[in-house]
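Annual report, structural modelling task.

Input specification for the zinc ion complex:
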Amino acid sequence: MSLSREHLAQQIIDAGRFLYERGWSPATSSNYSARLSASEALLTVSGKHKGQLGLDDVLVTDMQGRSLEAGKKPSAETLLHTQLYNWKAEIGAVLHTHSVNATVLSRLSLSDSLVFADYELQKAFTGISSHESQVEVPIFDNDQDIARLAAKVQPWLERHPDCVGYLIRGHGLYTWGAQMSGALRQIEAFEFLFECELKVRALHKS
Ligand SMILES: [Zn+2]
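The model returned the following structure:
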């Protein structure tokens, strides 16, 4: 059953309020979306404060990231959202945040990915049922050319059908879910793991 535009817009507004309050979407950063149909997504418009979104602050795009609403400008990173909807039909919501921990950890990690292992909370990710499995999170270098960045993300997604999220270095996190609630759960799990990882690294150094 697909949800109405108004229902999905409300989910995006509620997600924005929650993510802003947690400090994971400061200033006008971040963007959120939900799948409206097989060929359309509902996305936050460019440049809005994410803790104060209204029903008019979302727009419909096609799955190539083009606005289907005259006069409304989609977020710069729209293509990274539609890429995920095109990758998997079961994805119903995509969240992108700019937290301090995601930013710092992705800058500290010089390798191309982070691997989380032996954390109980890994089970919050879709498809993970044990702390014994590993969660690999790729880190892509930041790029203002979003089409070029998407072209780097695509081969990773194709090689890793179980991928649950990725980082952009010095920038932020992308994760998703079948519904908004699942995407929010994965954001919380990632933020918990990022914070643990930074604390472990800080203690190891002292
Ligand atoms: Zn961003």
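Residues 138 and 156 are 8 Å apart (CA to CA).
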